[in-house]
Structures are given as structure tokens and as C-alpha cells.
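Q: How would the C-alpha cells look for this protein?
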Amino acid sequence: MLENETKEQLKQYLALLESEVIFSACLDQSEASEKVETFLTEVAAMSDQLSIETKQLLRTPSFEINRKGADASGIVFAGLPMGHEFTSFILALLQVSGRPPKIDDSSVQQIKQIEQTLHFETYVSLTCHNCPDVVQALNILSVLNPKISHTMIEGGMYQQEVDEKHVMAVPTVFLNNEELASGRLSIEQILAKVAGPLPADEFETKEVFDVLVVGGGPAGASSAIYAARKGIKTGMVVETFGGQVLETLGIENVVGTPYVEGPQLMRQVEEHVKQYAVDIMKGQRAQTIQKKELIEVTLENGALLKTKAAILATGARWRAINVPGEKEFKNKGIAYCPHCDGPLFKEKEVVVIGGGNSGIEAAIDLAGLAKHVYVLEFLPELKADQVLQTKLHSLSNVTIITNAATQAITGTSQVEALTYNDRITNEEHTLHVAGVFILIGLMPNTEWLDSTLDLNQRGEILVDDHGATNIPGIFAAGDCTDSVYKQIIISMGSGATAALGAFDYLIRQT
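A: Here is the predicted structure in C-alpha cell form.
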């Protein structure tokens, strides 16, 4: 089952096991159980620290990872942890064996202080690049607190369960049998949901920063690195480190890196930031910013941070189409990531809204899974690169509809249909589909700045060639600004520009 190259890599990790680990497996005579048994047998044969036993678990096939002689870890994999989840499996092995997880001390203390019994279940797709972050975070909670347990459920192997629970997006997390959340979550966001946000008094001891960066995407990370390299006190307010890039699977235009996946790139970027003395405050959102004697940033939890200069790098999010049904059916048939959620629509009919590069790339990916894909474009022609359009036209199960104005998305508990108007004939049409993928560009995350800074009509922050805004000492970078092109490499460059601009501003103050 495991390729030789994968085995060689796995051997290196198995050498790091701190103690003996047992796979407690629940299997039967089914084909699915045979696959899981083969996988576990191959892995166990690679280290004398690993063994297999049988155990009754809630799902068959599934297996628990336990340290020999210790209480059950509560970490269960229901299905095969392959694809993107193979890393989750390796990390669970190491952490159950005794290797400490690499998270902040404050998060460790928060996890250990949780007193209620929590059982998490996460439905995943093995092609989802966001799922492992959630699985790994919940596994860490289980390792550190015996009152917490977590089961990863591979949707392809448990399709009936997925259908019964109306799981229409991955990852979807259930807590104690109630749906908790859907989509990407950081460990800080999970803790905020189950234990509440960090109180404001946790931030009272923070000294005045020289530069405070708001945002943790490419622009924010670049700003922090360039500021810290100047030897000045630098902080970061970060909701989720990585930003919109975490939604991107294949990246092929970062100079010097022919191919990298978004989550991998931002993990490398975060490690780079951590090489410097940057105070990273994760799981936090800025609520207001004001220029007084110093610049004051108030967080949503009420904490007040003070800084001599600030760099806003809050990025952007997928733009909404603002039609009836969009909010109601989000993650119930409405999706934004074909790589993550595409497998849930296998042999079903779906719509992709958007004729730009993102939309057409999504349609091409979905055509390999879905029964039929409809592409809706508001304009008379698609806007995607010609090479993508040529590929799209070659696919027999794709229908392209231009001059289409989406009117509504309807259904009962999940998406069942989409209605659009033909802008030429004004005729109304209905498509009976199970999924709607919306990819029509980005919207800047600047609502919290309304009436504070000068913005353009699109809500983007206006900046000069130093990254400066209309308020002295406040700079901005990346996709939240009026930068003409929204690209990772451009965001990184604008982050560097803003940091250098902020440093130049600081050294000229008396």
C-alpha cells in the first residue's frame, strides 16, 4: 500500500518515537477493513516500537493510537489516514509516544485547564488541504487533556454517515454529536469556541510596540520580518496565521519555488517569522485603531495594544454574490474550495459561478468528479487565461453559460437548485444542482476601518509608494490595499515596503 519513497520517509519519523505505541484496531471482514489492516500492518512492521491489538470502537474500520501501558489517548482514525492526512497520522504517532506538540505555552495551559468532557469528530476528505490543520489541532487537544477525545472520519469510507448528517463541506467538526463548525480552524479558534477567548487582562503586561502588524498572511509576515530585522520591538495580531493563502492548493509563481501548496508555504513563512523576536498574538481580531499620542489598537476581546507605528495587512476574503440562499446554505452545498469539497459532490451536478482563472480552474477540477458542471459567467465572455478555456472546452461534462445573472439558491436542508436570468433575453432558468462553488474574486477585510482611514470605492486602503495611509504612523500592505494586482509575491513585497516605510517614519520622530 505504501510506496517505497513514503516508507523511507516514514522510517525517519518512526526513529523519533519516544516510547512504544499500540494501534488498537476495530476491524471486520469488509474490504474497507482489509485496507486499514494492510496499512497498519505495513507501518507496524517498520518499527519494533509499534504493535497492533484488537479493540471494540464506535466505528468499523477504525483504530486508536495509544501509548503502551498508558490510558487511551482518545485519538481515533476512522478510515485510512492517507493523502493530506498522512501527516496527521505521523504527528499523532509522535505526540502519543511522548513528543510534545509544537504550540505556544499559553495554548498548552488553556488546553490543560479545560474541565468539561469533549468528544470531537471531524469529517474530512483526503484531498482537502485545510482538513489536516483541524485534525492535528484536535489531536493535540486529546494528547494534552485526558477529558478530550477526537475521531477523524474519512468521508469517502463513511459516505452513508456523511449523507445522514448532511455534511456538505470539509472539514466539518462535531462536538458531543452537535455540529460545531465547518471550514478551516486554527487551534486558537477552536479554543475560543470551547473555552472562550483569552481575556483582556492577558494583554495588560504588553509593552508599547515600535511596530504592530495586524494580519498574518504574506504581507503581514513580510512586514514583521522586515521590522524585526531592524531590531525594533515588533508584534503581530493574527486571527489565523497564513490568511487567504491557506485556501490555495497549488502555487507555481513564487519566484525560486516552482511548486508549493498554500498551507506548506505559510508554515515555512511562520517558521521564518519565529526566527525573530516577534510577539505573535494568535486567535485575535482587531476591532478599532486610533491615532492618539500613540497608535491604539483595540481587540475584539477588549484588550488595548499601543504602538508607535502600525501596519495593517488584513488581506481579503472570497467575494459574495449576495443573493437569497447564499448565507442559508453556506457549507450546505455552497462552497469556495473545489480541492476540499469537490469529493463530496462525486457524481452530482454542480455550478461554478465565475469565469476568471479561479472559477475555470475549479470547473476543470470538478469535472473529474461531478456528473456535470455548469459554469455561470455574468459577462458575455469568460475572463480566464486562454489555456484554461481551451482545457475547459475539451471537457464533455461541462456547460458554459454566459450573460447569466444569478437570482437565488434554493433548497430545504441543503442546496437543491439555482435560478439565473439570461441578461440578453431576460428569461429565467433553473438548474437542479447539489452544489454551488462561488469564485468571483476577493473583498478586502476593511469593514472595521470604516470612517477611520481613506478607502476607495471597493473598500481598499489607499496607500502611497511607502505603504503609508492618510494617518501618520499607520501603514498598510497586501490585498487589503489598492494594489492593482493581488498576488502572493506582490503582497510580500508590499509588506517589506510598509515595514521599511514604518521604520523610516519612526527614526524621523522626535
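The chain has a mean pLDDT of 95.

The longest helix spans residues 488-507.

Upvote if useful.
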